[in-house]
Amino acid sequence: MEETMRIETDEIRDNLKYLALLARDYPSQAAAASEIISNQALLKLPKGTEHFMSDLHGENEAFVHILNSASGVIREKVDAVLGGTMPEAARAELATLIYYPTEKLPQLKARCTTEDALEQWYTQTLLQLIDICRLVSSKHTRDHVRGCLPSSCGYILDELLHAHFEDHDKDLYYGQIVGSIIENGRADRFIVRLCELIKHLAVDKLHIVGDLFDRGPRPDIILDLLIRHHNVDIQWGNHDVVWMGAAAGSPICICTVLKTTLAYHNHGMLEDCYGINLRHLQRMAEQFYGEDDLSIWMPHTDAARGPYTEGMLHRCAVMHKAISILMFKLECQVIDRNPDFQMQGRDYLRRIDWDAHTVQVGEKSYPLRDTAFPTVDPADPAKLNPDEQLVLQKLVQSFRQSEKLQQHIEFLYAKGSVYHIENGNLLYHGAVPMNTKGGFAVEHFEGRRYSGRALMDYCDARARRGYYGAEGSAARQSGQDFLWYLWCGKLSPLFGRSAMTTFERLYIADPATHTEVKDPYYSWYNDEAACRRILAEFGLPGTSHIVNGHVPVQEKNGESPIKGGGRLVVIDGGFCRAYHEKTGIAGYTLVYSSRTMSLRTHQPFESAEKAVRENLDILSQKNILETENHRILVEDTDEGEVLRERVHDLKQLVTAYQLGWIPEARCEDHVW
């Protein structure tokens, strides 16, 4: 016993500087002891629900609905509380109110033709929402719930959620408070606040497994919502890193972003939402390419987002061609600067036979579908002409000066990473590059070899250089080039294919050249032993799970999103409307509660307007991946480990107070 005490006091003595800092927050034994009790109680609460989404691709309406409904979790809570007393249609209506309170509320109020009917509806709805909110708040401490309450009505909501009825009648007590809320014209505000609180408390953590940008109409709305979310992390996708490079001022990343945006006729979002000035690009495009045959440059369009006039399509197509040729020129330059990328042979402007109008791909030559290259000098194909230089300069300036874009990208860097580990789950967007034998592929960068987890860590660090490196420095240039490599490099963990065949798809008719060979990872991830090797590489036991995105699951062809004997799950089921025909569904999400891990399969979402009007939910199928033998508690999670360490430190602080090594503050607030 004495030996144990001596070891403990030696440890406290060694930690006195840290404990003195901790004492600023807990200036007495009573304050520290109170926090110990609070943390130990928190350890015994059920684990919070985690919600996983991937490959959103700018589909803001579908994202908002999945976020609001928590992939069906909210409806499950409504059914649990009211399933025995309320018809299904009425529960669907209440769920829609929770998803979209400000949009649904006027519609429901309009059905009340008298003041008495409106008052009765207010009373019933408020009481139903309070009961649902009490259920979702039961997994949280009262202190945490109080922290989630809005200041304007937090005290009353706290009273409604935590009142005890041993000494008074519940219906009478609630009736008095709710009646007062209605009488004072505050019912609408309380309904909206309760709906938001239910959504907040139902999901503790949101994980976004990559690809927020491209194809869909409003990635900016998605980012705005994520910034306001109470607890979120992001694993970068290849469509994200190229936007990160563009915001950093990388010319090649800017051209790549514009090429993809124009290919899907989504440049209006860049202009209207991010303030990117495309006027100089359009002028240059019309000057050099305005009279060309633009048939292969016409954008992909979505009839639901039309109509499109001939003039609109022409302007988009002519800019699409101009920016693509500018991009191919810059690709030559980046490949030259970075032999480590091993992309020699993809500098296609140098592989064109200008007389024969063919291009060499590998050992074979193919005829070009478009032979007009008015801005390309055959003697030096990668050289920019003065007009292109001016356009590029203006575009870089516009991307760098977009305040909203910079805010969004800084958020991606702050909350994002190449991979993330939490509560026994390994999250990453693309792949851990592998070789054909199932080992981790080795890459060489800057004179060193990387594979497995070390490669992922290296990619993360070098990607940050591209944005945070000193202006004009070699490190910043290197990092920006690498962000482009992460977008399309053959061993990029975020891409996972042999090549991004953009040039081939545009210029060569033979579909054999369009093939993008998947990394061997995508064969090996069907093997349970390979998945267990990946988990071990990241320090996780074989019972853990890998959550993967990036490659849409072809469910309509019988493909399963569950791989490797249940060790890996792919949650890219095609959120993007452009993928729906290919996948047959509209995305997967994952929900990990204190009792189960479940995969949710979603059908296409038509519109938020129709969902509000007709109480339509995204039709979803729930597939239980794993059921726990016992309810997972906070003490079983990563958060629990942090709390236990904190309790240990606080106990040391209490001992330091008792030994007189740290003086106690005299403060009545901390006496109990």
UniProtKB/TrEMBL annotation:
EC category name: hydrolase
Xref: Pfam families: FBPase_2
Sequence similarity: Belongs to the FBPase class 3 family.
Reaction(s) this enzyme catalyzes, per UniProt: beta-D-fructose 1,6-bisphosphate + H2O = beta-D-fructose 6-phosphate + phosphate
InterPro entries per UniProt: FBPtase_class3, Metallo-depent_PP-like
Superkingdom of source: Bacteria
UniProt-listed Gene3D superfamilies: 3.60.21.10
The entry's keywords: Carbohydrate metabolism, Hydrolase, Manganese
Cofactor or coenzyme needed: Mn(2+)
EC number in record: 3.1.3.11
Pathway(s) where this gene product acts: Carbohydrate biosynthesis; gluconeogenesis
Keyword Manganese: yes
Name listed for the protein in its UniProt record: Fructose-1,6-bisphosphatase class 3
